[in-house]
Amino acid sequence: MPNINDFGTAPDGTAVKRIILERGDLRAQVITWGASLQALYRRGADHSLVLGADDFGSYLGPMRYFGAIVGRVANRIAGGTAVIDGQRYAFDQNERDCTTLHGGRSGTGSCNWVLEGATDSSCTLSLVLRDGQDGFPGALRLTALYELDGQGGVTVSMTGQCDVPTLCNLAHHAYWNLDGAPTTADHLMQVPAKHYLAVDELQIPKGPPQPVQGTRFDFQKPRVINNPDEPILDHNFCFETAQPDAVLCRLSAGGLMMTVHSDQPGLQVYDASGMNTAPQAGLGGIAYGPHAGIAIEPQHWPDAPNRPDFEQVTLLPGETYRQTSRFHFAEGGL
Questions:
Q1: Tally of domains in the chain
Q2: Cα–Cα distance, 229 to 56 (Å, whole number)
Q3: Given 172, 187, 235, 297, which residue is catalytic?
Q4: pLDDT tens readout for residues 89-132
Q5: Catalytic residue list contains 297
Q6: 11, 74, 105, 162: which is deepest, by most CB within 10 A?
Q7: Is 300 a catalytic residue?
Q8: How far apart are CA 128 and CA 118, in angstroms?
Q9: pLDDT score for 229
Q10: CB–CB of 153/24 below 8 Å?
Q11: The dihedral sign for the CA sequence 212, 213, 217, 220
């Protein structure tokens, strides 16, 4: 029987549930709020591989988006506006009062999803974003499936369907920390992308993809993520052609390696340089500070609705949005 318990009460009065999944060496804890991966443990380690909290209130404050599925449009939309099917729409400008981040204030990461079903090693959640929510047209019906495969992997599969033309670009927004240290200083990362998107002061892409060669963003060979002499890392890495089960990233620390497989054309990586959850404590009872984790988010490229040269994220009636991303863990390093 699946292990399901109460985790808190959402602002709308509905119960937030926690589902505990176990298979092989992994134990995952998923909460219905934001369809979030609250914790992930590997046999033999006493720390979670993702950042999270035991107190639900933290997810309404400094830990918003931690482990959540974010959308209906992950990342940023410049000016909080875009044209959909010939009509211009204005969205919730929830970042600096000028951009739309992760779908707005009531996006998927800030909703209590419905638990549709669960087994010992998987759970399915659903959500309907209403027409006009945060300014987006159309009712968008979403599902998220978490599965432990028994071979060291957790797979997150997402689908979406709409009744009128709308936008859909989801991302899994976990912050990873593989060795349990206060920061990711000892983590090595490899991203086999040859191009990235340079951004302006609002984190909006300011041109076509740029070569990573010789820049701070060159992770074609493994290297440390954080360097005080380099700019912060909160950028999209571009993959020219999305391929099923492609390797988008490898991350290692403490004798453990995570390999990220996904069918998405982009990978947003954020080094959490601005993280500070104090006074709210994370798992283990300690507040998270700068560089406590690293967000690795398969998705489409940011601000695509305003960039006709980018692959688009328009979803039409009769179509199904799909994303599958797998996070696999094994002993070893880069």
A1: 1
A2: 36
A3: 297
A4: 999 999 999 999 999 999 999 999 999 999 999 999 999 999 99
A5: yes
A6: 74
A7: no
A8: 19
A9: 81
A10: no
A11: positive
